[in-house]
Amino acid sequence: MSALPQPEPMQLMDAASEMVAAKRVEGRSTNHLHRYTVILGRFVAWLESQHVPPTLDALTARNVRGFMAWTMDEYLYSNHIGSGRPRQLGPASLRHLMIDLKVFAKWVYEEELTETNQLARVHLPPKEHRELSIFTSEQLEALLSAAAADWRWFGLRNVALILTLIDSCARISELCSLTLDRLDLERAGGWGRALLWGSKTKRERPVYLSPRTVLALREYLTAATPYRRSDFVFIALSGPNAGGPINQNSALQLMRRLGEGAGISGVRCSPHTLRHTGATMYAREATNPMALQSLLGHTTLEMTRRYIHVANTDVERMVMSAPPVGQLAPAAGARGDAAVVAGIAAGYVQGTSVKQLAKQFRRPERTVRDIVRPLPRPRLGQAGYVELGAAAAMLGTTRKALMRRIEAGKIAGTKFGGVMHLSEDTVAGLRAGAGFRLSVRTA
Predict the structure, then answer these.
(1) ∠ CA 20-25-30 to the nearest 5 degrees?
(2) Buried-most residue among 90, 94, 317, 325 (CB within 10 A)?
(3) pLDDT tens-digit profile of 377-394?
(4) For residue 162, is pLDDT > 90?
(5) So what's the pLDDT on residue 135?
(6) What is the DSSP letter of 207?
């Protein structure tokens, strides 16, 4: 009896297509799926150059090591955005390449398309631990000046994008997908909040925007209204997608161009460098890795530990106490000074104390008092309540003096979101010289 014919081994790219479809159902990001296809296609091309049939039988440790050696020594990657010269892959890219090949080998084995996992014993290249690359305050201001010099509302968008990246520590993909209904610029004290959706983490998280960033966003959104064709916050200015959402490649090219215009060297000008910079500036003032982990959208503390060590605070309090944009020196020129004055004024009438404003905008308290003197009294931070700093401004005293009276039980205090407030009646009583017993509660 003749032996039954053996089935032809499955083609590598056919198996790759099946894996990509399966990973798509599992919820993997579009970028991940595209990367699988590109890397496996590159492996198939290398096999063909070695006259090896590109079937699953070729998915061996020997072939993969040969492919990796060729990639390290000879392969030049020429698809860097804005780069006119090919370059070799870096250690991190080589590690990701091997990880993706091992994922593929494991998947085809678990799907019983191969009898063994040929790459189970292939070790990954060592993980590279490099110093975080961040901008200095002077470089950030130079970058903002270069952005503001762009024509018409292009400059307004670019300034708003940079400030938002610093304050929020967002990934550029998250800001590209941010829509207007997830942006709140009406919070107390001139602050804002955005709800980011992470395509990488599949989670939603809030980030907070300082008054200077909120002012820049307001100015940009107003100027961009006639050109808008979508509900995305940051829109493209030209090309076939004009009026639609800006894409990641455009943002990368923009940052590289602005970096060159600002004369910045020694640091990569990219949106991700702004994310690193913002996180590092927060870490200088805050000490809770859990809060910073939440702000950055990390799924584990491993990456967050690069920025900060342990303490006990929450994300919003951390952001309010040390906004990265608030740590920048005011922009030079009348436009920058006007933005600072407007930010102080907006924060004051919405209940932020003079002391807090002085810290946020890096101005002496005496200067801030001169700016706010002709303004109306701060409005209430909560219905029927006044934030303690705003109450101190109304009463011509200090926050510390009021806090001492609360601690002594002479007046009542109420906490909203961890911030002490006085009721409107208490403030009126203090004006009339009356006293109140202590009644501190948390709302």
Answers:
(1) 55
(2) 325
(3) 554 445 567 777 777 766
(4) yes
(5) 87
(6) E
